[in-house]
Amino acid sequence: MNLQYIGLDEINGPLVFLDGVKGVGFEEMVEIRLQNGGKRYGRVVQIEGEKVAIQVFEGTHDLSLTNTKTKFTGHPVEAMLSKEILGRTFNGSGYPIDGLGDVFVDEKRDINGIPLNPVSRIYPRDYIQTGVSSIDSLTTLIRGQKLPIFSGSGMPHNELAVQIVKQAKIHESKGDDFCVIFAAMGVKNDVADYFRRSFEEAGVMSKVVMYLNLSNEPIIERILTPRFALTAAEYLAYKHDMHVLVILTDITAYCEALREFSSSKGEIPGRKGYPGYLYSDLASLYERAGIVKKDGGSVTQIPILTMPNDDITHPVPDLTGYITEGQIVLSRDLNQVGIFPPVGILPSLSRLMKDGIGAGYTREDHQSVANQLFASYAMVQDARSLASVIGEDELSSIDKMYMDFGKLFEKYFIGQGFETNRSIIDTLDLGWDLLSVLPKEELNRIDDKLISAYYNHERAVERFHIHNKPIIKTLAGDARYE
């Protein structure tokens, strides 16, 4: 029997409280009718005896304590799903906002997901090619992985997200059932328009599902947005055997909404005011990535978060790093000298890349090239630190060589630009050309057989215009003769 409750006991921020309620469940969907006939929706977020707290999706403005009617639906918040969601744009509550009408519903699913038996999971293998050299070669994204991007205020993470959506694909041998689900939380109108326009102009909208929550919309919707996106991803992956890449931006905005919501419930705050259950809440999102036995699809996640004050020890990046399998860190120093994408190589890593690259996946030399590029770029940083103390002119010849290698590496390898889409083979070939600038004796992370097969100093000289007296142009356009 459906009972309708008239009146509210309390309104506090995005929450309303009812007393004397029986037979309701946690996360149950609620219909709220206003005095003027309008309808809003909410969900049960707290139950204490017969008193319940209801989270109102559209906000609590204009609600009346005396004339508001509340009805409990008996089911949790559900996403309306079908394969028709591809190419569509929804708001954070899962309703279409692209003017193309409602979606024909094939299935309804609880947005909190379906618990997966850990035994049914398959270890992630095989890679997703993003077309970005610094990611594909050094922090390779593996299908079924969760690999976050750590950014900062004013950094071009939105542009990098668009580039990944435009260029991402799986290996041709794995089929063409690949799609991207893009969820934006707390973004401004102009940023949302930028995402929409970029995907349409690139001609990739047919394989993209967008969930947009704007900064002027209720924070409650911001909490629901990633769950709608991940529910859609699970539906496409496990029912239609598609390989789904989910990009979530900005996780920091989501966590701030969670903090505000927790405060309105009167919960005891934890570190920096975030709720004590922030770790488990983030895990409930991130752990929905993976591959399941007997299903042909996969869910891969790239959460993007902005670190307040570039502080990687902030609770949001700190906890995210514990849950996920690596991170891609954007460098403000590289961004300030005009390098795009400004991926900081040394603090970035992908913990699963070793099992999804090499012979049979990318190329047999991939791991060795990645190791050597990491090691050589670390030598560059050491040389630069020494030069800052004693001056570049006082460096040894090998340190000067590494300084030159660093300029070439940042200019050609990291700074590939927004429009350049490199295959994994092109990326590895470029890596070899850069390593071929160095003497063979310096390539101590690579087997001699691979050096014999791929090392080519003459090709490197020609590619980077290094002739008899090497001239290495810096980003500022000056030149230095050795």
Keywords, separated by commas or semicolons:
ATP synthesis, Rossmann fold, 13 helices, ATPase_F1/V1/A1_a/bsu_nucl-bd, 3 domains, Thrombin, subunit H, 22 strands, 482 residues, disordered C terminus, alpha/beta, ion transport
The low-confidence parts are 468-482
Shape: elongated
Beta content comes to 15-25%
CATH topology of the largest domain: Rossmann fold
How many distinct beta strands?
22
- Whole-number tally of structural domains: 3
What structural category characterises the helix and strand content? alpha/beta
- Main sheet record: 8 strands, mixed
**Overall pLDDT:** 91
- The rounded Rg comes to 26 Å
Strand order of the largest sheet: 9-17-16-18-20-14-21-22
Count of helix runs: 13
Structural write-up:
This protein is α/β, with parallel strands linked by helices and 482 residues long. The protein folds into three domains: 4-76, Thrombin, subunit H (Beta Barrel), CATH 2.40.10; 79-355, Rossmann fold (3-Layer(aba) Sandwich); 366-463, no CATH class. The protein has 13 helices and 22 strands. It is elongated and about 80 Å long. The N and C termini lie far apart (87 Å). The model is unreliable at 468-482 (pLDDT under 50).
